[in-house]
Fold these 4 entries.
Entry 1:
Amino acid sequence: MKKLLRPLVGKVISRLIHLCGIIRYGEKDLAKRNIQRTANIHDMVTSPDEPYYAGQYLHWILSKLDEQFPDRGINILDLGCGQGRLTIPLAAWNRNGRVIGVDFTKEAIETARRYSEEKGVPNAEFLVDDAPHFLEKTPSESYDCVVFTEVVLMLPQYDKALQHVHRIMKSDGLAFISFRSKYFNLLHTIRERNFAGARLAATQQTGKVFGGAVTFSWQTTNEVVELLSRLGYRNTMCRGIGIFSGIEGDPLETIARPSLLSEKQQSELSDLETQLAETYADCGRYILAMTTK
Ligand SMILES: C[S@@+](CC[C@H](N)C(=O)[O-])C[C@H]1O[C@@H](n2cnc3c(N)ncnc32)[C@H](O)[C@@H]1O
C-alpha cells in the first residue's frame, strides 16, 4: 500500500508547489523563472554529455561557415548562448571578426564571460537580454550568421522571433537553428507512461507536454522546413543532433550516453551520428536546420 501511495503523494506535492508558484509569480513569469533556474544549474560547457553535442553542432556549423566565409572576420550572433558552449569556439574560428552571445540568464552570461577570458577569445562579447527584446531593437541585415540552438523549444511566439532572425540576417547570411524533435517528445512521454502528453506530442506542435509551467514546442523535419520557408528562409537542410544517444534523463540515454563511453567509442558514435544525421534527422534529440535568407 505504502509503495502504491508514494508516487501519488509525490505527484500531489509537485502539483501543489506548481500552483503556489503560479499564485506567487503568475504563469508567464513562473515559466521564465523555471527556464532560468534550469539554465543556471545545467552548465552547457561542463555538464558531462554537452561537449559531445557541441562537437556535433560545430561539425555542421563550421564546415558551412568555412564554405560561405573562407576569409572569416564576420559578424555572428549566438542567441540564447547559455554559458558560451558554441559562442567561444565560434569566436576562436572568427578571430578577426565579432561574436555576440545573448542570454536572459544572468548567471549563464557571467559564466560565459569567465570561460571566454580563460580561453582567450576577446572577440566574444556577452549580453544579458531577452531574445525577443534583443531582436526587436536589432537593425535589419546586421549579421552574417545567426546561431540559435536549443532555445526555440522554450520560446513563446518563436515564429515571431524567427521572423526577426530572418530580418537581421544579411542577404548572403546563414542561420543555424535547432528545434526539439517530435520523436524525442513522443519517446519521452511514452517512457513515462504519460499518454496524455504523448497524444499532445503526436497531434500538436506546442503545449505543456511535460506538465509544469513551460509551454514547449516541437516539430518534425517537414514542419521545420515548412515553417522556415513560410517565413522566407531558403535552402533549408535538416540534420539530427544525437540520433542514437542522449544526456541523462533522455529517452535514448539507454542506447548511449557519450560521457560514459571511452574516447574511441565516442569518436565511433560521433562518426555514425554525423554520417546518418540526414537520414535520421527526425530522430535527433534536436533537429538542426541550416538555412539561408
Ligand atoms: C539549452 S540552453 C542552450 C544554450 C546554447 N544555445 C547552447 O546550445 O549551448 C538554452 C538557453 O536559452 C536561454 N533562453 C531561453 N529563453 C530565452 C529568452 N527568451 N531569451 C534569452 N535567452 C533565453 C536559457 O537561459 C538557456 O541558457
Entry 2:
Amino acid sequence: MKAIMGLEVHVQLRTESKLFCGCGTDLDGRGPNENTCPICLGFPGSKPKVNRRAVEHAVKIARALNCTVWPEVRFSRKSYFYPDMPKNFQITQYDVPLAEGGYLPLDGGRIGITRVHLEEDPAKLAHVGGGITSALYTLIDYNRSGVPLVEIVTEPDITSPKEARLFLDKLSLILEHLGAYDPGREGSIRVDANISLEGGQRVEVKNLTGFRTVEDALNYEIVRQRSMANIGIAVERETRHYDAETNTTSSLRGKEYEEDYGYIVEPDLVKIELDQKWVGRLEAEMPELPDARIERFIEEYGIPRFQSGVIVNAGLEMSRFFEESCRLHGDPGEVASWTVTSLMKSLNFEGLSLAGSEVRPETFVELLELIDEGVISERLAKELVKDYVGTGESPRRLVESRGLGLMEREELRNAIDAVLAENQRAVADYLSGRERALDFLLGQVLRRIQARGRPLEVKNLIKEALDSSGKCLGSSAGRAPGC
Ligand SMILES: [Zn+2]
C-alpha cells in the first residue's frame, strides 16, 4: 500500500506589524494579551487594513515557488468556534488565493504547490496541568492573534516521510534567502501533514513544529494505518494530534469539511489589485535563491557540486561565511574543503550554529594560512579546529601560546632517536624486512611530537635514521665510522 502525503505549511512572515492592525509582531517580553488592539481582538466595528509588506513577502514566496500570482487578492472569513479566534472566524483567502499552480524542484523531481495564500495567525493556547487532551484548564494569549501567516499547500506528491522533511528543509532555506521569516523564532513554521494509504481516507496531523517531528509523525501514521488495514479496520477521516514524547498520534476531532466553515467574502476589506508591473518589480528585487547559488559557487569558485550543496544547504549564514573566507584567503578549494569537513563537523559536535559561535572568516582563514606557511601540519590543524570552534580564539595565537609550530629538523631528529631507542623490537622488525613496522614507528613519533611535523617528512626522517642504523648493525667490525 503506497502512502500519499501532502503538507500545509504555515509561515509567520517577518513584518513589523500584524496583518490587519498596527500591533507589533515582536512578542518577546510582552505579558499575555498586552500586544493587542480592538482589531486583532476582533471587536465588533473594528476595521482591518491589509499590511502591504505581508503581501510583498507572499508574492515573492509565490514566485520563488513558481506559482502564478493572480491579479486580484480577496479575503474571506472562515468560521469556526474555537477559543483561539476571538471573532469566531479567521480572515484568510479562500476561492481566489494569492497564487496557485507552482512547484518546488526536489532531488531531480518536483513537488507541486497547489496554492499560496495569506491569513492571520490565531491566538496561542496554553494547556495547564496536562496536554491538549488532558489539561486541567487552558489559558489564551491573544498577542499572536493577527500575526501574518502565509500558508503554502502542496499537492499530494510526497511519497515518504523523509521526502517531507527534505521538502521542508528546502522550503525553509528559500524563505530564509527571501528574508521572509525569522528562522530563530520558535514556531515560526508550523505544519499540518495529510497522509493516506492508497484507497484509504485521509488523516490530518495538526500543528507540527520541527521538521524531524513531521517525519516522525508521518512514520507513525504509516505504521498505524497499515496495521489497521491489515486487520480490516477502515481508517477514518479525522484530525489527529502528535505527541513527541510517546511518538504517537491521537484523535482530536472528526475532520471538518469545507462546507463546515461557511466561507463568506470578508466585507470589511476591499479587494487588492496586484498590478503585474508591481509584481515584476518585486520579482526583480528577489535575491539569489539556493539552487542558483549552488550553481554559482560551482562556477565562480570551481568547487565540487557536493561541497557547494553542503555549504548552501547549511543556511544563508554559512554561504556568506564561505564567500567572505574565499575573499580573504584566495583559495576557494581549500576554504570549501576545510569548511565542509573540519569546520562543520566541529560545529556539529559542539552543538553550535555558525551564527551562535565565535567563528569568523577572519580567524578561520588564519588556520589555512598557518598550513600554507608551513607553520602547522594539516593534522594539527584538524585538532586545532576543535579548540578554535569552541572558543573562537585566533588560531595564530593558539599556536603561539601553546608552542605548537612545526619542529625544526634537529628537534625532529632528536624525537625520532628517542622513539627508536624505546622501540627496539619494531626497529629490528623493520630491519629484518617488515615494512609495516615503519608505520607503527611513525605513529609513535607523531604522538610524541603532537603532530608538530608533516607526516611525510617525519616518515622520511625515520627511514633515514633506520637505514643508517641498519648500516651500523650490519658492519662486522664493531661500530662503523659515523655510527
Ligand atoms: Zn492589533
Entry 3:
Amino acid sequence: MEFKTLYGPVRSGRLGLSLGVDLLGQRICSMDCLYCEIGPTRAHTLKRHPYMPAKVILDELHAWRRQELPRPEHITLGGLGEPCLNSDLPEIIAGCRELFPDIPVAVLTNSTLLHDPAVRRELAAVQVVLPSLDSLVEREFLAVNRPCPGVDLLLITSGLLQLRREYTGLVCLEVLLLQGINDTQENLDLQRQFLTKLQPDRVDVVTMTRPGSSPLAKAVAKETLNSWRRALAPLTPLARMSAKPDRLEKHSTAGIMSADTAMELVLNSLRRRPQTPEQLSAALSVDVMRTKTILDALLREGRITKVRDFGDDFYHAVL
Ligand code: SF4
C-alpha cells in the first residue's frame, strides 16, 4: 500500500527512530518561516479544520502496522504544516494510542495555537510536545516566522507557559537561529529570562542544515550555536545534553552525564508519568541498558516502583 500521510520511520535528532504522520496533506500553516524545508506556505491560516481526516490517517496507520517494518521509538504528528490546525487531532491521537499502545506519541508545533485551551487539552494525551520559539524580539519573530494575521507573540508565550503548567509529558523546545536575523544578544537575553520561567524539559538550539524556503535563511556559525547552547544549557536539566551539531544526528548523552545527573533525570521524568525503560531511554536520549541500570538502583533505594501493565514493565516514582 502506498501511504500518503505516513513517512519513515526516519531517524530524528530528538526522537530517535520516528514514524512521521502528516496531518495537513498540503502546505497549510499559521507561519511561513524563512527556513521551512518544505517550501512556502500555500494556505496561511489559523483556522482549524479536518485538513487530513482522522479516518484517512488511521486507516493508513492500521495498514502500516501489518507491515514488517522497524518498530519506531515515537509516532510523530507533524507534516506539511502546523499539525494542531487539524481539528481531528483528538481522534488522531486516540487512534495512535489505540493502535500502538506502547509507542509514545510526539507532536511538533510552532506554538501558535497553544493559547487555545481546547488544543492544550488535546495535547494532554501525548507523551512529548516539541514546540518551537525562534525569537522573543517582535521584529525578529515577524521576519523569521512570517506569521499569519491573528498570531501574536504574547499569546504564544502565554500559551507555552500555560501548557507547561498543565501538561505532565515532556516539553522539548526548539530555537532555530538564522544568521543576522534572530541570533542577537537581545533575543538571547529574552530567551534566557523566558526559559527560566518556562522550565522546559529540554532545549535544542539548532540552525539550518538544508535549504529553506527563502535564500535569506542562512545558518549561523558553529561558534554562535555553541555560545547559545552554553548560555541556555544551565536553564534546563536536559538542555545540557542537547548540544547536537545537526538536526538529524542522533545524540547520545550516555557518555557525558554523571551517574547522579542521570538518576535525577530518570526520577524527574517518572514523576511526570510512569514509563517503560524504552520510553525513558527515548525521551531522555540515554542508552537503554544504562536506563535499566539506573532503574534497578532506584528500585533498590525504594524511590520507584515497578508495575506490569499492557504487557510491559512501567516504572512509577514514589511521591
Ligand atoms: S511552522 Fe513549521 S511547517 Fe510552518 S512554515 Fe514554519 S517551519 Fe514550515
Entry 4:
Amino acid sequence: MRKISIDDLENSADKTLKISFEDFIKEFNCVTPVKAEIILKSLGEFIEAKGHVSGVVKLECDLCLKEFDYKLDFDIDELYAKKSLMEEYGQELELKDGQFVTDLDGSDEIDIYDLLYQSVILNLPNKKVCGINCNGDNFLKEENLSDPRLDVFKNIKLEPKNK
Ligand SMILES: [Zn+2]
C-alpha cells in the first residue's frame, strides 16, 4: 500500500490504520527493500504518522568514494495537517524538536512512499564514512601527490646511507 485514503482512515475503527510497507525506494540504491510499520491516526484536524523504518541502502563514502552498506533503523513521528497551514501561518510549522507538520493542502490521501523517501533523506548521516577502518586518508594523500605542484618531490633522490 503506497497511498492511504483519508476517508478510509476516518472510517476505520478508532480512526487508526496500521500500514506495512516493504518495497525498494528507487531514489536510493537499496540493498534490501525498505521496511516500515506505520500507524496512522486521525486526530481531527491532524493526522499522526508513527512507526519504525529499517532496511539497507548503499552510500558512497565521502573520504574514499567507495560504496558501503548503511543500515536504516529509525523512528518516524510526523504530523499531517488536513487544511492548509501555510495560509494561516505563512510558514512551516514546527511543533516540537524535529517534528514538522506536513501540509496535505487539500489532498485526500497520504503518500506512504513519499513519507518514507523524505524520512530516509532526513536520517542519512551528514558525513558519510564507510567505517572506522576507512583508508580515505591514504586516498587523499595519493591525490595530493598527483598534484603537479608536488612533482618536485618525486625528483628528490635520497642519498644512500653510508654503510
Ligand atoms: Zn571510506
